[in-house]
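# nightly structure sweep
# worker-07 picked up a monomer target from the shared queue
# config: single-sequence mode, recycle default, output format = structure tokens
# input follows
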Amino acid sequence: MELWYSENHTKNVRLSVKINRHIHSGKSDFQRIDILESLEFGRVLTLDGLIMLTERDEFVYHEMMAHVPLAVNPKIETVLVIGGGDGGAVRELAKYPGIARIDLVEIDKMVVEVCKEFLPALSCAFSDSRIEVHYQDGLKFIRHHQNEYDLIIVDSTDPFGPGEGLFTKEFYGNCYNALKERGIMICQMESPFYKSYSAEMARVQKKVSSIFPVARAYQAHIPTYPCGHWLFGFASKGLCPLEDLDESWKGLSIAAKYYNLPLHRGAFALPTYILEALKNA
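# output follows
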């Protein structure tokens, strides 16, 4: 008997992945957490039935969240990651010896525990002494921090359920306040293609650009995400993702499978339909 995992990207589009076995299923206070083993993508983490990552393509998402800001400001020392309980973002950040402190705020402790057990390639950096995990609501945590971080990465789920509050104007404003003078915020902006996702992309751009002097979007190809085309937001108090790109990043010899400096520049060259949607926002 063949087993298939299917996820509806719209009412008319569905992604199906052939599954070897269902490794884990649990229910936390916030969501259902499953680990599946697929033939094509390795192990798959789903929350409430939606793919969050797969072993095969997670490196794209996590590298594009971590290395883009570090290449603009390689002198970043203090980092806050909100969400990201799988450990992928902090794994990439831990590659930088100049980073002195990484706070990770994850609302669901079970996500961290499950990923440590079943996704060790992602959660391998949790033992790093620079990383401190706070099991709190990111929306509440950020309210109590002012002028403290060089970088904030909002590694949120989709804008409903536990992640809903991380898409509000109040939250982005609090992130602005928590950043230092040269601070950068990175957030995920959903898919630009399907109508429902594109609408959320425009809403994020409108909120972030009303708060940050610099608010730019960039893209990556992630096969298991809706339409395979995903956007991220780069926001800062002054640093620009292209004009301030620091060529010295190459000298750090950071191991990356997806990210490089030419790709960094190209990621900000967006298709016309996306530019128009962002402009209209």
